Every structure is written in C-alpha cells, then in structure tokens.
Amino acid sequence: MEIKRLFDFLTYQLNTKPLDNALVTKRDGIWRKTSSQDYQKFANQISRGLLRKGIKPGDKVALITSVNCTEWNVMDIALQQIGVISVPVYPSISIKEYEFIFNDAEIEYSFVNDAELYDKMLKTQELVPTLKEIYTFQEIEGAQNWKEILELGLDEGNQEEVERLKSQVKSEDVVTLIYTSGTTGEPKGVVLTHHNILSNVIASNEIVPDMGEHGKALSFLPICHVFERMLIYLYQYNSISIYYAESIDAIGDNLKEIKPTVMTVVPRVVEKVYGKIYDKGATVGGVKSKIFMASLKFAERFKPFEEMSFLDKIQYKFYDKLVFSKWREGVGGNIVCLVSGSAKLNSDLNRMFWAAGIPILEGYGLTETSPVISVNAMRPEEFALGSVGKVLNNVDVKLGEDGEIQVKGPNVFKEYYRNPEKTKAAFTADGYFMTGDIGEFRDGLLYITDRKKQMFKTSGGKYIAPQIIENAMKQIPFIEQIMVVGEGQKMPTALIQPNFDYIREFIKKNELTIENPTDERIANSAALKEIIREQIRVINKDFGHWEQIKKFELTPEVWSQENGLLTPTLKHKRKQIKEHFIDLYHKMYQD
C-alpha cells in the first residue's frame, strides 16, 4: 500500500505484521499491552467521540504528558484521521509559556496525564479564552477523563463520518504544530505536514539496522519532541513493539525487564550512564578496579569496523568477558543500536560504547526539518566517530559562505505559525532553510562544528566555538555541566556545574577533604578547584592559546529545567545561565 498520511503507518502495520504488543505501558506493576487492532479500534472510538463533541478538521488540541504512554499515541492517530491538528507541549514549561502557546495556537481542548499537569491546565485555562475543556489520562478527582471520549465513541453510528474525513486528509495537510523550546526568546510554532514527517520516516528507515523478528523499542525521550515522535512512526512502520519507560529514574530497571533492541538517547543521558559505570568500576577497589581502568584504556583506541590485531583480539575477549559484557547486561543485553540526537555527542564517549558492543548512531536535525538531516549508519562507509553521518537521500544540504548548514527537501517545515517575518528570515533567497549550525563535509559525511549564534569573538578579534571546548572539558569526571563564555572579553572563561554526586564519592575515598560537603561547600573548595584546574590544563593543550580556559568558576547549584537553566531537551539556556551566575561571571574578569 502507498503511505501518504502518518496514520497510514498503523494501517500498514495491520496489513503486514500486526502485533499483540504494538504499544505497551506499565501500570500497577504490570506491562499492559495494546495490540495493533485495539490501537486502531481505540483511535476510531476517540475520533467518533471528538466529532460528537463538535471538534472539526483544522481545530487544535494540546497533548501533554510527563511520561510517554499508550494514550498519547491513540490520541495522535485519532486526531490525525479526522484532520485535527495536534499541539504537543512539554510538561516542564511555565504557566507563562503555556499561556503564550495556547493563545497563539488557539487551543480548544487539552489532554494531560497527571494531577500536576491538570493543575497547571486549570491555571492556564483562566488565561486562555479559547480553551474549552481539559481531559486527563489518569483518574483524577473532579477532572474529566479521556475515557468519557472513548465511551462517547462506543456507538459506531458516525464511523462513516470518520472514514469520510480520513479520505479527505491529504499528505500536504498540516498534521502538527510544534513549539520549539528555544534557548532564547518566545517559542516559535513550527508547522509540519504529514508529508514533512512521513518523508523523514521513509528516508531514515534506510539507515535502521535489522531488529530481528521481535524488535522492541524502549521509549523515554519526550514524545512531544519531533525526534522521538518520528521514530515512533518508524517503529510502527517496521512493526517494532514500543514499550514506554515508567520514568527516567526507572530506565535501568525497565531495560532489564524489556531487553529492548533499540532506544533513542540524548548525549546527557549517555554521559550519565557512563558516569554511573565509571563510578562503580573505579570505586569497587582491588584487582577489579585495575581491570576496569585497563579496559577503558583499551576502549580509548578502539576503532569501529576496523580489523583488530591478533594481540588486540585476545585483549578484547578478556575485557569483554569481565567488563564490557556487564555494560551490555546493564542495557538489557539485546541492544542492536542506540540513536542519539538533540545535541553533539562526545566522540570519545561514543567510542567507549562501541568498544563495549553498544553502538550509538549519532544523527543531526531540527524540529524544522522533521527532524533528521543526517545520521550515521552501521556501515563502514557511512560511519565516523565525531560525525553526524551521511545526509539522507531525499535531503539537499549546502554550506553557506560562513559554513552554515542550509537545507532543502520534503522534510523542511511549511512555516512558523502566524509569523511570516520569522518564516521569511529563516530561508535563503533560493529557498534553503538556514539551520544556524556551522558544519563541514569530510569524506561525504557531515560534521557539526558549532552553533552560529553561539560562536563569539574575544576583544582580540579571535573567534571562539564554545561547544567544541565544552565537549572536550566534559571528559573531566568532576564536571557535570560547563558553559564557555567571554564574548568581547580578552579571553574565554567557563562556568562549571560540578558533578556533586561523583565528588561526594571521591571525598568518601579520602582523596579530598571537604567538611559537610553541601553543594555550596563543594563549589567553594579551593582544593577541588585546583584538581579541576590541573585537568583543564591537560585538555587545553589540544586548543589554540586564544581558546584555552585559564579561569573558571564553580556554580553552587545544579543546572536544571526547573530553575530555567536548561531547555526540556537538556540544552543550555546560555543567556539565562550567564544572568543567573552574573556575579561569578564578573569575578572571572575582575583582574
């Protein structure tokens, strides 16, 4: 069958390889399975119920969940097949941001999953005249539940109307409105059509390695983000069962229960996983720690797809049996690959995971490109550590005079909602979308060097690319987050959030003395600063003298979404971080 709309992927699954575990969510300690047939049945029920509520094609409905769940997907298909536009929104944003998005999109109905979000919605409703009703997925006292819509759709009397509307949906119709979280300014509503996302699914599918007869995906990245959402459709296309993680804290347990073959990650998650592995291996003591540290030394020179020498093969078998096999067990033991996006992945870290038999395929894209522009494949000629892989076959990329990556293709968004000026400013005269990222091609593969807007000049006129320096410095285990600053100053400096958990373990081993190690005392420790300074000096040798970090300050608190310093995809809000720690910033430039 020809797939023209996103909901056709479910029809394709039903026609080719229906599953009894198409969508699986854990409730009350039990994994609750939804078959392909029930998935479609429930979507039809919701469609019929919504039509009876008076919802019509072109209306906009918000979907907000704190964890991914089956209900989200059922709602997604139900809205699509009657021409209603979904507006997925991050759960962690402020009431002020909800107010802006809901008023801008003229949201009429909102579906949320828990009591905390329902509370937020009640406050938002007072500020949004168009918002008629709020429904919840969980049972919450006093709240309308989505089961009311399901029950309203039990009568199949208007299924003919659903089928009629379904047949009228065209591939170029708008399917979703996604507001970019943004690191500065108000969110922009990215208008995406069925064809935008569908074309990206089909092109990305050529990269996906075989997941076997019973492929399973563990989904935990926010489904409101287009990266996870596009891959959900790709899983459906390939009849890969989708299991939703209970929470980010339960991922370790869920991995062992489900034993998935594929999972999407962001670099911050990979860093945290490695941090836990390192802490455990380095602190176990005795011979085990020595073997663990030796295995890391071996992994540092591992080269994916390259034939190992006879001696290396012997060493690899030894380290694999004693160390790397434990890494694989930790992620369930069946992982074919992890797919990383959203931000740059440290290539040395990726090398470690490849050595351990956990390949990470790094890709690159934006919400505006639905999202994938390029991605590494598990083929030697289409993979390189540090690259974001080969450009998809239906995407056209060129580099501007300043190296900016510019994109044209069926995946590129239609417009910014109700914002013709920003839409026009986002494209070149010949119709290429300007990503704002700087890159280069090497051997046919794309490499990202920095964000155009994040690059800055020192007072001496030297350009600084902060992300390259930051990624290098994050190898230091004492550093959890780092942001390089110094625009217009004589030299770059860095604001650093210490890895408080790692440092407390370090203190327990009597390798550092800090009495009553609160976050603030850790950040003010002169002894700790000297240890970090020495490690920074080593990494500085890889950079030009004008790029080297000579001064830094440790921040006394964790950078998070809650305090407004990270976006929902865990990227730095650079302006807010600088303002939040402005006293520390000035301290670095006092002399």
Walkthrough of the structure:
The longest helix has 21 residues, at 310-330. The protein is α/β, with parallel strands linked by helices and 591 residues long. Helix content is 38%, strand content 20%. Among the domains are: 7-19 and 202-405 and 428-452, Rossmann fold; 456-588, GMP Synthetase, Chain A, domain 3. The strands form six sheets. The protein has a nine-stranded mixed beta sheet with strand order 2-1-11-10-12-13-14-15-16, sandwiched between helices. Strand 17 and strand 18 (404-408) form a beta hairpin.
Give a nutshell description of this structure.
With 591 residues, the protein is an alpha/beta fold.
SSE layout:
Blueprint: H1 8-16, E1 23-27, E2 30-34, H2 36-52, E3 60-64, H3 70-80, E4 85-88, H4 95-105, E5 109-112, H5 115-125, E6 133-136, E7 144-145, H6 146-152, H7 159-168, E8 174-179, E9 189-193, H8 194-205, E10 216-219, H9 226-237, E11 241-244, H10 251-258, E12 262-265, H11 267-283, H12 286-299, H13 310-330, E13 337-340, H14 347-355, E14 360-365, E15 372-375, E16 390-391, E17 396-399, E18 404-408, E19 415-416, H15 420-425, E20 433-442, E21 445-451, E22 456-457, E23 463-464, H16 466-473, E24 479-485, E25 493-498, H17 500-508, H18 519-523, H19 526-540, E26 552-554, H20 574-580, H21 582-588
Parallel strand pairs: 1-11, 3-4, 3-5, 5-6, 6-7, 10-11, 10-12, 12-13, 13-14, 25-26
Antiparallel strand pairs: 1-2, 8-9, 9-19, 14-15, 15-16, 17-18, 18-20, 20-21, 22-23, 24-25
